[in-house]
Amino acid sequence: MKSVIGETTDAAYQLDEEIGRGAQGRVFSIKGGRYAFKLLGKKNSKDAQLLQRKISYIKTRDISDLNISKPIEQIKGEFLGYIMEIATDMMSLEKLLKPTNDLNWWEITGGLKKRLMVLKKLSKLLADLHSRGLIYGDLSPKNVFISIDKDFAEVYLIDVDNITHLSKIGDAFYTPGYAAPEIVKGISGADTYTDDYSFSILAYQLLTLNHPFVGDHINNADPELEEEAYQGKVPWIEHSTDNINKSTKGLESSITISGKMMKEFINTFEINILNKLKRTSTLKWTEILETSLTGILVCASCRNTFFY
């Protein structure tokens, strides 16, 4: 597929390269830099009608001022997909979770400061969305796009067809490893609290290169145990009294996570893992991350960033 045609405008969009891939489809950049294309699969009338309703719903919501890739139109032909706006010079957040062999990888990808800036802007974006009675629903690194330049930290959410005001039990679509325990168990739909939980997972992973529930115990166990970990039945890797699932990989959290931030990770992943009403909200995360950024220093010789 080299190009697609807009269903309502008849505009021809020339596809450039694949910039994202997830359980719900693939995302391609479009030549010219202003738009992207999300391919969902083969089209049938039921799916096409559902997608059209989702696009129409998003277009009527008050989110024009938020960094969210707005849907433009569906495409013609046998494939199901839509054109969306996207900022230029962006990459998937997933790129910051996969170190290269370069010893300076952490520094040349923005260091601690960029990661904290990205998280602050993402938490504020989600909090703003929640304040308008909307939820994102499927937050994962694949759905968050950030500035490629190490000195910038702009954040955009893609896959906006997930945005809604409420999700019924059993209807929530999620990325394994990023959903709240109640969604994985099938006892709750998506809501602002499940978005908050997904953000906490992503934040911890971005700062330590470790998933908070995938320690050595899970890595060496059967796949079924990983599902139990995502349901909150296995201690997280920095549990205060149970180190069965500690991790010997990734970065030392004391270097990249402040004391106040760690307190909120403990609150979410340990104390209130099964009490969504008391887990740390994205609104509170925004305040904490803003404070954490005031404690960042820059090394005069290597230009790396670290906590005071």
Task: Write up this protein.
The N and C termini lie far apart (51 Å). The chain has a six-stranded antiparallel beta sheet with strand order 1-2-3-4-6-5, covered by helices on one side. The protein is built from ten helices and eleven strands. The chain is of the alpha+beta class and 308 residues long. Helices cover 33% and strands 18% of the residues. Helix 3 runs antiparallel to helix 10 (282-293). The longest helix has 21 residues, at 111-131. The mean pLDDT is 91.
User: What is the succession of H and E elements?
Assistant: EEEEHEEEHHEEHHHHHHHEE
Mean pLDDT: 91
- The total of beta strands comes to 11
Structural class: alpha+beta
Give the biggest beta sheet: 6 strands, antiparallel
In order across it, which strands form the biggest sheet? 1-2-3-4-6-5
DSSP strand content: 15-25%
**Taking Cα atoms only, what radius of gyration do you get, to the nearest Å?**
20 Å
The coarse overall form would be globular
Could you name the ranges where pLDDT drops below 50 across 5 or more consecutive residues? none
Q: What is this structure's SSE topology?
A:
Elements: E1 3-5, E2 12-22, E3 25-30, E4 35-42, H1 45-59, E5 71-74, E6 79-85, E7 90-92, H2 105-108, H3 111-131, E8 144-147, E9 155-157, H4 181-184, H5 192-208, H6 216-219, H7 223-230, H8 253-256, H9 259-271, H10 282-293, E10 296-298, E11 305-307
